Amino acid sequence: MSLQFDHIVHYVFEPKEMTKELSDVGIQNRYGGEHDKGGTFNTLSYFGLKYIEYLGIKDDQSFEENIPHIKKYSLLSHLVDRRDREGFITMALRSHNLLDLANSLREKGVSANGPFPLSRKTPEGTILSWELLYAGEDDLEIPLPFFIDWGVSDEERRKDLKETGLITNHSKGNLEISTVIFAVHSFDQSFEKWKTYLALEEIEAESNLNEDVECRTLALGDTNLQFVKPLGEGRIQSFLLNHGPGIYQLQFSGANEQEEFVLHNANYRFL
């Protein structure tokens, strides 16, 4: 089961406003398009094949009407109960064989729904299609990511994204998404489950948060998934008290200078 980091979802109230806000901090962002069902739309910031999806609700009525049809463990299932709070929601991992992945997860006792075909209209008016797989179990502290298959090789997709201008240079530096940090109460119901279900390797990596935490890290290709548990007072403990377990911070390598800021209730750090 070969998985790669594909993208992280940052829910914002006004995705189109992100283009200027991100440009002001040296990051390129472009309008992605509207999803054909569900009343959502997005803008996108690419860092090679990895990207951030700034997802918003374009039509409240369409979103409400779609709620009874939302699949369990899907991206939108995480959004339903937190539409009033911006921030990181979840992430997607890329696979080139979702059927095999679904079977592997089911063999481990994980509920898997799909694959399902999806699409959206691009700004040029063409239809972009892909497949998604949703999986999980109810007692996980950090819900599993969802899984995506773009139907083409990584090389083909990189070429297409460069030709359409989605993969481009950022004035902030030669940026790469390097680490996703999760704040957790328990490694048993988060880290251990992800390690087993996704067949990921645990690696030795220290926390760079300058806080009293215990951390464990999984290697996902060239992206690290780091789970941190507070051992005392600090920002991680505060995050857990205010928001519960979830994605605490997104880290980048290759920045021209080190910087950290909160953007629409999500923590970004550039190293």
Automatic annotation (TrEMBL):
Pfam assignment, any one: Glyoxalase_3
InterPro entries, sorted: Glyas_Bleomycin-R_OHBP_Dase, Glyoxalase-like_dom
Glyoxalase-like domain: residues covered: 5-197
Signal sequence annotation: none
Q: What is this protein called?
A: Glyoxalase-like domain-containing protein
Record lineage: Bacteria, Bacillati, Bacillota, Bacilli, Bacillales
